[in-house]
Amino acid sequence: MIDLYYWTTANGHKITIFLEEVGLPYNIIPINILKGDQFKPEFLAVSPNNRIPAIVDHDPADNGPAIQMFESGAILEYLADKTGQLIPKDLRARADTMQWLFWQIGNLGPMAGQNNHFANYAVDKIPYAINRYRNEVNRLYGVMNKRLADRPFLSGKYSIADIACYPWVVPYERQGQNISDFPHLKRWLEKIAARPAVVRAYEHVEKINPGPGGIRTAEERAILFGQTATSIKQ
Ligand SMILES: N[C@@H](CCC(=O)N[C@@H](CS)C(=O)NCC(=O)O)C(=O)O
């Protein structure tokens, strides 16, 4: 059984999609990042960066003690290796998949996160910051669109690279992007959205965090955007 420390955000969806795809049993431990659960000592012991997702694998392949992991890319690679699924075994194909997985972690995630922050959450609307990150996400969607022009998925078959990127393309409207400008990306998005495992993964949202989503109060804003080193002092 895998314990999954989860909230209903893009980085959380990556792991529920993977687990649903491979059928590995999991137990969700909700970490309400709007209420400050990410600063609780028991969570920080698993995820010292106070971010979801994180996992504890109580049944690791070496039969040793439980393995704890944070960072969604590392978790996806670990779970793909554990199950032998959604990651190629061939050396070259695996290297290709890993570069697209890391591309998401180092580019699409951080840029889309900042885009969301400055366009949708920041009280001060700073045109320079809004344009900078919207343009970066536009460029990154363009990189994916080009890559997908002559192949169905980012790296050969459907893989952890697609699973990592997908939740960052779902909210293309909030990202200030017109999906029709990216026809290959749109086809990819629709194909993945139709997968039963993906549908099941997103069903957690309504159960765990029903309602309009996003930040609702000044207190939630302070918890998410007022963080310093003191936030994780225990
Ligand atoms: N690089 C990390 C990013 C994780 C991340 O930013 N998680 C967000 C939710 S999408 C979070 O936990 N935020 C809590 C906070 O900002 O305090 C990963 O890929 O796992």
SS elements, strand count: 4
Whole-Å distance between the termini? 29 Å
* H/E element sequence: EHEHEEHHHHHHH
Which ligands, by name, code or SMILES, are bound?
A: glutathione
- Classify the beta-strand content into a percent band: 5-15%
What's the rounded overall pLDDT mean? 97
> What value does the Rg take, in angstroms?
18 Å
Taking strands numbered 1, 2, ... along the chain, how are they ordered across the largest sheet? Answer: 2-1-3-4
Q: Give unreliable regions as ranges.
A: none
Strand-pairing-aware structural class: alpha+beta
What is the global morphology?
globular
* Percentage of residues assigned to helices: 40-55%
Q: State the major sheet.
A: 4 strands, mixed
Total of helices: 9
